[in-house]
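I am writing to request your help with a piece of structural work I have in hand. The matter concerns a single protein, recorded as an amino acid sequence and a row of C-alpha cells. Could you please explain, in whatever detail you think fit, how the C-alpha cells follow from the sequence? Thank you for your consideration; the sequence and its C-alpha cells are set out here:
>
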Amino acid sequence: MRRVLSMSASVVMMGIMMLTGADVQQDQEQIQQIEIVQEAAVEPLVIDAPEGEVIARTHIVHVFTQEDADMIKRVAMAEAGNEGADGLWMVASVIVNRVNDPSSDFPDTVYGVIHQKNAFATVTNGAYDKVTAISDECEEAFARIEAGDICPEIIAFEGTKSNVLDKWFMEAFTYRHHKFYTKK
C-alpha cells in the first residue's frame, strides 16, 4: 500500500515517526489536528508501507523567539542591508546554520552566535546596535528562514575584498559584496 503523510510542527524537529497497529486512526487524527493548529515547512515522505502502517517524515522547522528574530534581522540589516532580500537571507542563513552546527565551533543559541567574539564585524564595530528600521526585504528574507528555506552549509561570510576567512573555511560562492564559506 502506498501512503503519503506530511506533518507540521511547532518546534524545531527532525526525524521519522512511525505509527503502527490499532492506534493508527487515532494518531492520524492527532496529526491532522497538529497541521490545523500550526502550519510549517515539511517534506512529505512517500513510501511503500504494509497495511496498517503509516510513516511520516519531518525536517527541521525553526521557531524563533521574538528576541531571536529581532537579533537575526538586525545583523542581516547591518551586514547586508544594501544587498536585497537574497543577500539578507544568506546572512540570516549563516546565523541559523551556526546555531544548528553539531560541532562545538559555534554556540547553540542565536544570542551566542551573534555575540561570539569577532563573529560579526557589525556587532564588534557597533553598526548592529544602530539598526533601527527593518526593511520589507529583510522581513521577506526572515520569512523564508522561518519557513525552513535556509541556504545550506554556509557558515561564514566576509567582504569580497578580504581573504581572512580563507585559512579556516572553504569559499563556496560570491554574492554581490560578500563571499560565503562552508567548512573545510
Q: What stands out?
A: The CA atoms of residues 100 and 108 lie 7 Å apart. The chain has two domains: 2-58, 66-183. The mean pLDDT is 76.
